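Quick question: what would this complex look like in 3D?
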Amino acid sequence: MNGAESLVQTLLNSGVDTCFANPGTSEMHFVGALDRIPGMRCVLGLQENVVTGMADGYYRIARKPACTLLHCGPGLANGMGNLHNARRAHAGIVNIVGDQATYHRPYDAPLTADTEGMARTVSHWVRTSTDAAEVGRDAALAVQNARALSGQISTLILPADASWNRGGVVANPLPVPASPAIDPHAVENVARVLRSNRNVLILLADQATLATSQRLAWRIADATGAHLLASYSNGHMQRGRGRLALERVPYGTDAAIKTLSQYDHIVLVNAKAPVGFFAYPEQPSIQYSSSAQIHVLSRSDQDSDVALTMLVEELGAREIAIPDAGCRPNPARGATTQENLAVTLAALMPENSIISNESISYGRDFYKLTHNAPAHDWLNLSGGAIGDGLPVATGAAVAGGDRRVISLQADGSAMYSLQSLWTQARERLPCTTILLNNRKYNILIGEYKNVGAVPGPTAMGMLDLSNPDLDWVQLANGMGVEAARATTMEECADLMQQSFKQKAPFLIDLII
Amino acid sequence: MNGAESLVQTLLNSGVDTCFANPGTSEMHFVGALDRIPGMRCVLGLQENVVTGMADGYYRIARKPACTLLHCGPGLANGMGNLHNARRAHAGIVNIVGDQATYHRPYDAPLTADTEGMARTVSHWVRTSTDAAEVGRDAALAVQNARALSGQISTLILPADASWNRGGVVANPLPVPASPAIDPHAVENVARVLRSNRNVLILLADQATLATSQRLAWRIADATGAHLLASYSNGHMQRGRGRLALERVPYGTDAAIKTLSQYDHIVLVNAKAPVGFFAYPEQPSIQYSSSAQIHVLSRSDQDSDVALTMLVEELGAREIAIPDAGCRPNPARGATTQENLAVTLAALMPENSIISNESISYGRDFYKLTHNAPAHDWLNLSGGAIGDGLPVATGAAVAGGDRRVISLQADGSAMYSLQSLWTQARERLPCTTILLNNRKYNILIGEYKNVGAVPGPTAMGMLDLSNPDLDWVQLANGMGVEAARATTMEECADLMQQSFKQKAPFLIDLII
């Protein structure tokens, strides 16, 4: 058995059965091993940021890591933007990066790069296996790290000779690492704060925004009068009817400061104390009141379900149903506005859909207008590196089976990883992309105005996406994805309904 | 004057007048400064690997650096693949990477990343300006480093507050660094080797493959009987009629070893001693004879024109014209074959064209079949990280003014940075893309067979680009580029001639 075969078998034994791939020459022995050892679903992406973004989306829905297959340092580099996003979303990923043979590296052949240096900037765990006999053991460790409760990025660098040499040893799966225990004193302290104060915010993030923690948090809010909010940047939220209508801290600094200023105490449940996405002149980095007290119930690597259960018990909070989010609306008619699109989405999305939200400026209100949709999963761009929406949707669809995936996708950010559409077509994934076509980097035009001026011709040359207009119907068709343009909500709703019936991708070029 | 304004004015004073950009929020003050201070041509790319690849292509033709404008660590990461290629092509680039404000960085907001760590993996020079007063000085240093004879990658990281704070100071341009002097003893030694041995190879790379060094090398070959070859991976060669029909060391290991085995002495002129692009089991890393003597006339950071002039004088080599490369051929007819396309290209390309060659497997023979084309510049993928062909072509066209740029572009690698086509359309660049559409990663199918087997279904799922076929006419049209399909050489030749008349981009989807 060669090193590559021990790697494939160890990954399968450890529960990793999906590989998002863009291979090159150094990975051919791994590809050969995948041919000989059955059980791994391999999904090709035509650019590496699509590959890593798919692995991120896969984890968020499957709640277990996939592996990626990347070619040398530059192949890893191409995928680092979405590894940054995955790290912020706490997605577990096992990157397999082929590289120069150990004895060939000193010759500095053209593709030789500082692969480890690149990997360290986005990974929690990095190792180069320099011997076929170590590959299985290292792969089991890579999976173990990735499977931590708060998923981690593991990067295993595989020199070509470690892959092709004989002497591979399949390793047994390693246990999932235990998450750090919740401190009972922290629970007691938070219970005391909640009992004795009025202006308390419980801020939820990540696991704490999923259904189980929501139900517990609601019992605590009901028992104490505390307010609940979610952080702005959560990779994965569960919402819609039957779930909590949980608002998020606003993106804009002024609005966030206004929202948070009323709280004297902030209890963090897997959340970080809120700070601005960016700094701005004359505005503070910290968005909460300088006199507010911060109390950590649980960190991002701890189990929020356990923490909140302990707090419910400490408070003796009663069982109580989550309030109904209201009737499902009817589809909107007429002009394509933010509100009309959000209402139509809530009206038409199938039960148990997955939303991949990279709607940027146009979608700022989508979230709060869709609480009364059927139960669904909502995936956000959590690292701010644009270009994750379409890859995350694609990977989520691979994990989701027959579940409908709907991308709310801004046009500027769609262009970063439009190659995703081809993978959606090849895999016949049930992905509906609503492409929000405003022909500009609208968020940046807003940011420019914040700097204090109207953009002149030079600035607009870098902020405007018209001249020429992108034709998204042709771009989608060119990659084998059926598509059509909509200029009214009636047209958009018709196309949504038509797409939701097909187990195949579709793109709606929505002119806004 | 704020830091951003001092940066723009210092760049302009230092001769950097072209900015390839994909800005974000942290760069808005720089964008604002570009609006207020005239003189910088700003070219928008819709993904950062397009931006950095354009800067590479620009340098290769303009022989001076452009700057890039990138957004935080992830924006830099997206562009690192082509920075790797630019480093291998010895292209000088000044990257300006906006980042979190200095005082905001400790809060670890979502886009915060290890920007310096990322930059170091692909840059010769990295600095973070933490104060508006330092930005001008640091920018002048960044340009100075990039302008070294063998161009370098400089990365200047600009926290948002260093950009917006008052106190910017415009810096004077710094002198271009002198390249290390040629050692007269090395010249004497090489002259001695050439005089006293028969089997001598003079291996040229980079600057030594441009017209001036070629003429000098030819005089030396004429005087001594030495053979001349170029390295396989050169970013920029000057060739066609009036230039030397300089063959390259073959890509394939067996062919390279066979070619090089006959030489007892190898004289390196800005070249590295040839090694394999990759290692393979049972094959050596080094491609030359183990008994061959290696003699370094000049390193890659030295001036090959000076070194070869000294050698010509030492040898007293006579003035002699470069041999004629033969008549310009007529366009080929019939089937789309490698040879037919190369001949047609030689027949039709305008004088002084620029070829951007990322033809990979299909284009292996293009080079040797185009010696008798009109004089032209030939730009190769020199770092092996696929996806540089279209961006390099685009940047070369920005530098080239009215010069025709022709991309020989494989389909698989085109998909890595297809967004380049949009920039070609926006800037109305005279770029003709000949898209070599074989619907597979053909080089990898060959590499898989080298591993010893025919690809099975799992492997082919990662090597085959059909199902669905990419429709390159629609993809190009979707980005505003006129395009048509050709299935015969007659159709291809007609489209080439039609395109060469227009100052606008065109894509020929050539079915091969």
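Answer marked as accepted. The first helix of chain A runs from residue 3 to 13.
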